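Table S5 (text form). Sequence records supplied for joint modeling of the two-component complex.
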Amino acid sequence: MLDGEPCSILDNEFVKPGKGQAFNRVRLRNLKTGRVWERTFKSGESLEGADVMDRTMEYLYTDGEFWYFMEPDTFEQHQADEAAVADAKQWLKEQDSCEVTLYNGTPLSVAPPNFVELEIVETDPGLKGDTAQGGNKPATLSTGAVVKVPLFLSQGEVVRVDTRTGEYQGRAGKS
Amino acid sequence: MPALLARAELLSTIRQFFAGHGVLEVETPLLCHAGITDPAIEPLMVERGLSLGEPRFLQTSPEYAMKRLLSAGSGPIYQIARAFRDGEAGRRHNPEFSLLEWYRPDYDERDLMREVADLVQQCLGAAPVEEISYRELFQREAGIDPFAATVEALRSRANQLTDTGGMNGDADVWLDLILTHQIEPALRKREGLVFVCDYPASQAALARITEDSQGHAIARRFELYVNGIELANGYFELTDADEQRRRFAADNARREQCGQSQRPVDERLLQALSAGMPACSGVALGVDRLLMLKLGESDIRRVLAFDWERA
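The corresponding structure-token record, covering 486 residues in total, follows.
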């Protein structure tokens, strides 16, 4: 906890002049806002731990205002607001497993699976015989995300996407 | 394995150097009755054992014991010793490390700086040697005069370099922050040996204090940086027992202010100083860091057989 905000430590460097005050240069991420910055502390200072934990949960549904997740072992449900799901919401597919960070028991942030398989709901018609040429076109997926896909793909096909980069990875087998 | 070989070779070079210069190798106890009073250095303690009447301190440097030898008439001496400092771990720090410390009766800090430069060049090869005062260094690299600037000006300069939260500090805390955050990184871009000397009197530690040509109280203390790595710290040593006692008391007062525990004062050192320690200069040099420089390593763990976590 720093200035009342939960933060995670990304990097912590100990520096000390030959004689004199030692410092820790700490790179922090504010878990609420995502801001990353460096703060310097005198070495040996302690900070209050934040009641933060990561849980793997199943995404259930959204009612437009909240996104609902369930802990698979206890069936306990949590509602995450838009600030918590943030960019993750464009990758959320029902029944997928997500990493939900809880702060004081409330979802603070949501990380989607690294790879998701989603159906193309809208794209320009596929061009027959154009499988080798490369080139791509935008496609809207069932969750609303827009990714670039090869020209030969058409509506109704399921594609695999890397959620960290938003890049098309390949065609997925229809299930 | 290359680091082990290089370490053995380095130790042999150091011993040959001192044998050739008529400096005697000595060993002194690692576990001592009294620890250091310096508020910025925390010792580790050994608390249990049949031989222990009370807990003892693992030495943070062999300085006090070596000064007792000097007072007893040892003449020039050196020691390669393990030293321990609690809480110091990072890319250039391991809580247990090797120190080379030596003392030269009749040398002032300038004479000793020349000998340090000789030894370091013997270990690392010829390199340019530069000498700069603490004041000039701050003016050149940070655009600030450490003797003239107000605490507020130093604090505001430090806050341009990093977010300090609500950190409290006197002038020395902000000077140390500017040094670690701005000046040391700038020194990393300079080739060769840089001796920084004429420290503010408030950072004298165990060095004598004098006045510079502008009337600033300065410590006769130097630090050696090689490629931006702080390698050695030396003094034209304080030999006045009364002044030493005042500095111990001042350290303890400062410790109290910062909520740190009081340290017992080393009465045996004070006795030795009263009996008469010869005018001398002394320096402590980090052997592990010298090895890092020799091998071009940026992390101390890569030059240790087993670092703190794996010890």
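Note: The first strand of chain A starts at residue 7 and ends at 15.
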